[in-house]
Please model this.
Amino acid sequence: MKAAGFETAAREALGDSQLRRNMARATTTIRARRAAAVGEVPDWEELREAGAAIKAATMVSLPEHLERLERAVEERGGQVHWARDAAEANAIVTDLARSHGAEEVVKVKSITTDEIELNDALAAAGISAYETDFAELVNQLAGDWSSHILVPAIHRNRSEIRLLFERTIARGQELSDDPPALAAVARDYLRELFLRVPFGVSGANFAIAETGSVGVVESEGNGRMCTTLPEVLVTVMGIEKVLPEWRDLEVFLQLLPRSATGERMNPYTSIWSGVTPEDGPREFHLVLLDNGRTDVLADAVGRQALHCIRCSACLNVCPVYSRVGGHAYGSVYPGPIGAVLTPQLRGPAEAPTLPWASSLCGACLDACPVKIDIPSLLVHLRGRVRREVGAPHAESAALGIAFRAFSGRARYERAQRLRRLGRGALANALAAPWTRSRDLPEPPDQTFREWWDERGQG
Amino acid sequence: MTAPGRVALLVTCFNDTLFPGVGKATVAVLERLGCAVDFPREQTCCGQMHGNSGARDEGLALAARTARVFASEPAVVCPSASCVGWLRDAAPRLAREAGEEGLAADLDELGGRVFELTEFLCDRLGVEDVGAFFPHRVAYHATCHSLRGLRLGDRPLRLLRAVQGLDLAEVEDEDCCGFGGTFAVKNADVSTAMLGDKMAVLRATGAEVCTAVDTSCLMHIGGGLGRARAGMRTVHLAEILAAER
Model:
């Protein structure tokens, strides 16, 4: 899932008129809903402050919180596994499935397992993984991948989904574009899976160190099904999702649904603590995934990105994301948060164009429920890419020439005079992307400082 | 609120070199209000472009140079929200990140003395009617650095509403125009898509002039409007405030 680079991928996406229309409609709708849901909370800013403070404090002593979580989960009959990277996590889940003779698994909250490409690992072991979130199901049936953290099939409209279903799970049927009718088709298909498959794999929105509780927040009820009906439940969770205390939920269960779907409260919040005899799965496994997260934690500026609660508010308000969609980012995590998270999780050399996939407009920071300063992180990561990977030659050359010209008054004034004599080869090369869609201003006859001198100082 | 006194103009390299009219207009408005304007000739560039492009050391060196040039000035006025935002917020943050505490402290101190033009007029001089006359229908585009960076709020609108003859048009959205510094050339296609939507919003106002407090965004918007022969031009807010009967 590695892209050629954001600029190229974005150019291709911009040419897809259906995608543009789907993205514009969907992000405009979610934006308005979020604005209304946030606007009615009088202490929203205090909630954001509290969310940011809890996350920052948790990161300071993350190992202690994780060990406390481990003890609490095990005291309640669950088992905890530590995975350094994707390969270890995939091996743990695959071995668990094998040891239970599972040939199929049902899945919910799949973005972390998308990050480690668990479905491919399971398939290689002969195990079929079924996505149960409506949009994840759509993507799986289409052989497509997620383009949004929360609305993974945001790039598709209802007509496209209808045609997809008619080719796959509703073969031979004639469907309508009516969303409830399409949902009913998916429900029939999924209910049968929920009742048949005894092995569930989930992600997690949070885990509480104090009580050993793990939680999934969702809208469709598939999360409730996946975490209660199977005999064995395996949850794969990034280590940054731990919260110290039960009472911390008060903050995040308000911040998350309002920021994510623009709802006061999400329809389903499932929280479980270990295993409960005669109720729910007989076996519970929690896989704690690092996969680059401790590297992010080691970057004093970049670590803020780990505060993310995956609400996607930054995607919906981003003028870049809302035009190019998620695939252009070449990353499981798209949009502004993806542009600061992916280069850190994978290393700057693996995603060197993402920190530039932004005009630094600041809409993401204003929308973030935990106040992650994404614009500053983007600038920080541009610096890391420049220092650790390098930048295109023409750009480095231009910045170098500009820096020398700006470093002293005489050189600067000489450069201003040269500017009027015409444009050099480098200037023309840099001007080409500009002038494809915009006129360039004519250089004035006189600079400001020449006018100032001519005018005399009083 | 203070009495008009001596102010130093930070014109910005962009205005100095390409849009001298913005600097002249800023001088005219300040002098009309009784300020004694000085232009420290040693100034070049504040370092914003380098800083935002990830060339941290170069950006900070230019910010430090700017702090030295303006070290003895009690008040510095700048007709660019993005340059003020860089000097006041981003540059000190980057300096701390680089472990340059002394420079960060110098920039914090400078940040307290540097004012974007509408901040200076509304907050320091306490004026809204600057005696301007501009008989045109005008759409005000809130640039990202003025809106979400400096949080200028309605200061530019208060100044525009007090201009005689000016017919102020409401702009429907607060989205980025797509300039974004080097973004405009590095991601020229996305930048152009954003510009297209912004031009549609601006043209829907029926205004003949689009104004803002950042010349760079206006060059981008104006470049698009010009290419489209849209019959709408861009004028920096300072130039509207400088216009007289």
Chain B touches chain A through 65 residues (CB under 8 Å).
